[in-house]
C-alpha cells in the first residue's frame, strides 16, 4: 500500500467521524424504507427455520436472522408498525433515537438509543414481537444511524403498518402519540 493510499484512508476516517446523513446514505448505499427513513439489508442467515418450527402466524420458512442499517433524519420518522419477530436495535452514529413501544395490552415505553449511557441512553434495545413501535430522532433537526437485527429473520409478510384510526380506537390513552407517528 502506497503513502497516498494510507493518507486517503486516514482522510476518509476523519470524514466519517463528522459524517452527515447524506454521507451515510451514500457511503452505505441506503434506500428509502416503506415505514420512513433509509435502510439496506446487510445480512440474511443461510440457516432457515421451517414454517412448522415457527410460532403460529408465520406464512412460511424464515431465515434464522436478518440485519439492516437504518437511518432517520430531520422530521422524518419511522411510523408505528409491528413485526412477528423480536427486533434488536443498535446505535451507531448521529443523535439519539427515540423508540416508542405500545405493548398489546396498552402499556407504553420510550427508549432513548444513543451513546451517552450516563444520561440514560442505551446502545441496544429490544422490541418484542407483536408490539407496535415507532421512532424518530430526538433532535428533529439531526439524524441517527442505527442497526436492526430481527430473529426469526425479517420478511415483509411479517410486517404490519399501523393504521391511525384503528390504533387510536384500540389505545385511546395514546391518541396524541399515535397521531404524531402514523401516516
Walkthrough of the structure:
It is a single chain. With 183 residues, the chain is an alpha+beta fold. It has a single domain (30-180), classed as Jelly Rolls. It is 19% helix and 39% strand. It has four helices and 13 strands. The strands form three sheets. It has a six-stranded antiparallel sheet with strand order 1-2-5-12-7-10, with helices on one face. The chain has a five-stranded antiparallel sheet with strand order 9-8-11-6-13, with no helix packed on it. Strands 3-4 form a two-stranded antiparallel ribbon. Strand 8 (97-102) and strand 9 (108-113) form a beta hairpin. The N and C termini lie far apart (51 Å). The relative contact order is 0.20. Mean pLDDT is 93; it is low at 1-8.
Brief sketch in words of this structure:
19% of the residues lie in helices and 39% in strands. By secondary structure, it is an alpha+beta fold.
Number of strands: 13
H/E element string?
HHEEEEEEEEEEEEEHH
- Rg over CA atoms: 18 Å
Outline the low-pLDDT stretches. 1-8
Query: What do the pLDDT scores average to?
Result: 93
Query: Per the principal axes of the C-alpha atoms, what is the gross shape?
Result: globular
CATH topology: Jelly Rolls
Provide the CATH architecture: Sandwich
Beta fraction: 35-45%
* CATH superfamily label: Jelly Rolls
Largest sheet: 6 strands, antiparallel
**How many individual helices?**
4
Helix content: 10-25%
| Number of discrete domains | 1
Strand order, biggest sheet?
A: 1-2-5-12-7-10
* Helix/strand class: alpha+beta
